[in-house]
Amino acid sequence: MTSTLPTTTTIDFLGSEIVPEYETAKVVILPIPYEATTSYRKGCENGPEAMLEASHQLECYDEELDREICFDAGIFTHAPIADTRHGKTVSDAEMLRVTQETLQSLIEQKKFVISIGGEHSITEGVVQGYRQVYQECFTVVQIDAHGDLRHEYQDTIHSHACVMRRVVNMGLPTVQVGIRAICQEEADLIKEKNLTVFRAREMAFNLDWIEKAIASIPTEKVFLTIDVDGIDPSLIPGVGTPEPGGLNWYSTLTFLRRLFESKDVIGCDVMELAPVVDSVVSEFTVAKLTYKLIGYQTVAKGWIKD
Ligand SMILES: N=C(N)NCCCCNCCCN
Ligand SMILES: [Mn+2]
Ligand SMILES: [Mn+2]
């Protein structure tokens, strides 16, 4: 009997010909095509697959780092988890559980995981995975247009608009970068808790922000969460809630390189890509951003092969 159920085949980051054995891979790409609470334009559940497909067009050679980084690091692409595509329902509790458990197991196996969303609420589960493994405190560095600091939004505390509030409530320090859309409740919380926020308006004309942001991170260990709407929508128009005035490409890369070389980045996620029909700009840019993260980490950790 042939099944009519949709099958999930995994598309490998960069293409199957470069995929190493799981055991030897330092890096695992974890697709999390989950979408439930997005409030404006939909489609971020299709982000991971679009990014993986676009990654086949990347050059393996990183011209900045002067290496074919993928052969140094070894990049393994995991099967998707918490998949809401094709009308499947996954509750927030189930998404958080499977995300936390998958992360915990990959981190225990010493993998450097880059989780690919999917909506930003997933980051709560991702960060919980790190908390299970790391006794030591770490800072969550967020690139985003939005504060995501609301207690609750549209009747759920697990909305993508609340994810950093969940992180703050875990007691972890945060550094928020590129912020340019917050509500009164968030502005009040930032003042009350004296949260560290680098606002896009202040960053726009002054590259000083990069060193200031690095210096403001209170711990050696860092988890990096990138909501791709933090980058300017002229570079990544495929997001659910676009906001003008975002980070440009080279200041983003300069910040990320500094972050990886000066801190111990224990993991990262790249969230909220919602592909636009008939344009590949967003998914290609997100694929390239992801490969840059791998490159910076590979150099920082000395995974370079002779
Ligand atoms: N993380 C996000 N993408 N957050 C988006 C929140 C959108 C809130 N719009 C509120 C408009 C009501 N005045
Ligand atoms: Mn955002
Ligand atoms: Mn966000």
From TrEMBL:
Entries under SUPFAM superfamilies matching the protein: Arginase/deacetylase (SSF52768)
UniProt cross-references to PANTHER family, sorted A to Z: ARGINASE/AGMATINASE, GUANIDINO ACID HYDROLASE, MITOCHONDRIAL
Record family assignment: Belongs to the arginase family. Agmatinase subfamily.
Cofactor binding: number and manner: Binds 2 manganese ions per subunit.
Originating organism: Planktothrix paucivesiculata PCC 9631
Catalytic activity, EC: 3.5.3.11
Cofactor: Mn(2+)
The keyword Transmembrane helix appears for this protein: no
Residues reported to bind Mn(2+): H120, D144, H146, D148, D227, D229
Gene Ontology biological-process entries: putrescine biosynthetic process from arginine, via agmatine
Molecular-function annotations in GO: agmatinase activity; metal ion binding
Pfam families: Arginase (PF00491)
Name of the protein in its database record: Agmatinase 1
Cross-referenced Gene3D superfamilies: Ureohydrolase domain (3.40.800.10)
PROSITE patterns: ARGINASE_1, ARGINASE_2
Record keywords, A-Z: Hydrolase, Manganese, Metal-binding
